[in-house]
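subagent[fold] <- orchestrator: predict structure for attached chain, return tokens only, no commentary.
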Amino acid sequence: MKHNKLVLFITIVFTSFCFSQNQKKETFVFLQVAPFISGENSKDIGAIGIAGFEVFVTNNISVATGVFSSNNTMFKNNNGTTIHSYGILPSVQYYIINKSKFNVFCTLGYGFGFEDLTRSAIQNSALTIVNIGLGGNYSIMNNLYLKLTIPYFYAKNITINKKALEGITPFFGVNYKL
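subagent[fold] -> orchestrator:
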């Protein structure tokens, strides 16, 4: 009897993960923002914004491309150094839970961009960005979702061979199904 209940439980769990609400070829557009805190002794506070689109290649796997921009002193500038960056960040998402009301996914991305430092003679130096993390969408209206992504990311300025930014930060935003 216990064996039958276990088989039934595994079947229900497996079925709920395999049959998803998002379907192959569905497309989404998204907009997200995150805090950008920089500076060693005095903290500067800015923001990172990313806008992009996502296409499902299977019911549980999607590819996305986002265009990002950041400013580390948008809200508070204590050290006098402003860093503007912009670029593109392609990524792949695997949807672990994929329901009509909510979903949870893992994400992995690698992108590139440019960084403009006001403190240095080098301007528009090249960046590489790697991110890995978790995220989710929660439906608030037909085709409109609240989106949360929590990636660990590492950005390196490859022109001057120096770490530009590293850490975990929450990105909040919206996701709209086209």
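orchestrator: received. Logging for downstream: Residues 12-20 have pLDDT under 50 and may be disordered. The chain is about 10% helix and 65% strand.
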